[in-house]
């Protein structure tokens, strides 16, 4: 009986971890996306290149990267490799990559 409990407990722990990861996801509303796209079009930035940084949601940008404000949106943006990246200014984690 004890042999069966260990895998079951491990499975529950994994499921609980997945639930926590999902709860941490940031959802950018379509309205916020529109505001960001329009602002970026009107205020273009030069694209930068970051060696060793993958442009994935959850990746952290170095402190050397200057983040730019978008009015009425809590996130900041930067253009990396010709892709607009929304970043949480508190954690510097990427919350969305806009192509």
UniProtKB/TrEMBL annotation:
The lineage, from the top, is: Bacteria, Pseudomonadati, Pseudomonadota, Alphaproteobacteria, Hyphomicrobiales
The record's InterPro entries line, in alphabetical order, gives: DUF1236 (IPR009642)
Q: What is this protein called?
A: DUF1236 domain-containing protein
Entry superkingdom: Bacteria
Q: Which organism is it from?
A: Mesorhizobium muleiense
Q: Which UniProt keywords apply?
A: Signal
Q: Which Pfam families match?
A: DUF1236
| Leader sequence residues | 1-23
């Amino acid at each position: 009986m004890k042999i069966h409990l260990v895998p079951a407990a491990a499975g529950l722990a994994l499921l609980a971890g997945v639930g926590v990861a999902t709860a941490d996801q940031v959802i950018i509303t379509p309205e916020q996306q529109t505001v960001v796209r329009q602002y970026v079009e009107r205020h273009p930035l030069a694209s930068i290149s970051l060696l060793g940084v993958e442009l994935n949601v959850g990746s952290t940008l170095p402190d050397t990267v200057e983040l730019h404000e978008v009015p009425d949106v809590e996130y900041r943006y930067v253009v990396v490799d010709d892709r607009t990246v929304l970043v949480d200014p508190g954690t510097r984690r990427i919350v969305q990559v806009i192509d």
